[in-house]
Amino acid sequence: MTTGPTPFWRRVVFSPAFAVVLVLVLLTTFAALRYTNFLGAYNVSSVLRYISMFALVALGMCFVIMTGGIDLSVGTVAAASSVVAAIFSPYGLMAGLAGGLGMGLAAGLLNALIITRLKILPFIATLATMLAASGTALLLANNQTVSVSYDTEFTTLGQGDMFTAFRPEWVDADDAGPLGKFLGFLLGFPIPAFIALAAYVVGAIVLNHTAFGRHVLAVGGGEDASRLMGLPVTRTIFSVYLISGACAGMAGVILASQFGAGQPIEGVGWELFAIASVVVGGTLLTGGKGSIGGTLAGAMLLGLIFTILNFENGMGWISLSAYWQSVVRGVFLFVVVVLQSRLARTAQR
Amino acid sequence: TGGRATIIGTLLGALIIQLVRYTLLANGVPDPVAMIVKAGLIVLAVWLQQREHRG
Question: Which residues lie below 8 Å from residue A97, measured CB to CB, with a gap of 6+?
Fold first, then answer.
């Protein structure tokens, strides 16, 4: 290597997030050419609505992984939160939101207490919480889905769009043209996607511009060293599990609100989706190095792959059962992760 | 943390966990509650093991 600081373009091109964004753009172009209406407002909006839940869970997971931990409980916690939110929904949007978030925070608190007080490995502690949350969800829901109340505004959170009130009529007309369509899309930005995006902005600011963010990375880089330096290690670890719980809780609220029901058996495999998004985004599983933007790109990439598989099924050329779809996803994920680690190693040289 | 394990111990552990589960279910405890008990059992077992390990 030459002396002096790495040039800016080199840092950008070799950053893990860049490769992900590149693949994201390529795949989107491919899909837009192959499937009609792939970039239509309806499809984009529903895909964003769906991905936002996974993106939220991945954000919490990113913070946990940066400390060198793992949170396997996110999926069932989201399921439990969706049940609680559905139960509280007759009392209004805020009650449902508070209920779901509360459930998520409670699970996060349980994780944090088991890990910091009992000094049990995160892997085992969150595995236990995963079971407990699933049991709680089934108990509260009485083994079936819980319908949310449609009398209150609860469902707008998952199904509504951001700026419906300011939407001029002409953007919905047939002859609106590309500009009108684009404007229509911007104004019709789905609320869940907006929530996820806001959470990511806050997450990025917290990681890059606060003492807490630096503590998270320091703890992941070396727990004992951080403790010797006098950093609040226990408090930092405690906080990341609370954050992860809150994110899972929010995802659960969106789940209930979007599909009109609290779903105790949803959330299976969400933790894997989240972990994969985080890793694909360039965050080290061992902790100490991470990227919020990369995680968002990773979550969007995985979501896009799922969507393309669905579209491919709809074309009728191939007909994949749900089982085969998960096999394809697994293979895809494997390829992406292998490429990612190769790339990360090249960048380090 | 790894480094110390026995095959027989793993078998015994799996047996005990399933035994507890079926005992609960046979006594009319609903499945979700059995799941929560299992979670508690895992945490308890690991915690006890760790205390012993550190002396």
Answer: A85, A157, A253
